[in-house]
Amino acid sequence: MDFLTTVLLLLVGAGGGVAAANVLRKRTGLTDVRHESTLLLERIEKVFKVVMAEGYFSEIYNYQDQKKILYLLNDPKKAMVIAKSKVLVGFDFAKVRFQLPDAANRTLVIEAFPEPEVLSIDTDYRFYDIQAGILNHFNGTDYTQILSEAKQVMNERAMQSDLPKIANNQIQYMMYQLSSSMGWHLELPEADQRRLDALKAKAEHDELPIKAVLPTSNESGRSQS
Where does the source fall among the domains of life (predicted)? Predict the structure, then answer.
């Protein structure tokens, strides 16, 4: 009888301790949340990419997927994504083709210059108005597809903005300034040379440095927002 009494007392005490701990945890708001992260470095590459313009964009992206139940009833699911992005546009100098520098005449000739490209998109996504169907539910693949399509839309919108033009003007000004500071003459491809000559002519007409006649990427980005 003494043994059974001891066992019962131990069980009651343990149960009371667990109950008291749960009550205390609820009152203090303590939660046991654990996060684990694994970082895998796949490769490191040497690049020579230069950012010449940045723009800030906001986009409302609507996603809708229609699914039929028994080929008769529509079972749609939809979501609205608001994306705010910082887009960096510039050049990959690995794609530039130079002639051998003419040291005697101190001339640097560029045969071909790459088109500006989006170098990075830093985006903050927020999901709103997520409505799943009766049987047509969202899964991980759906969210991945939504984010991929929203990023692609942002990339296209950036390239349709003034950012590529601004980047072209900026890179030509930078190369012109760099070569002039060293006493060299810079020769660009015909279209780029005309653009640079136009910038220099405008600056001389207004008696301003070339940089003063260049538009700013922030103004371009905000105008697209």
Answer: Bacteria
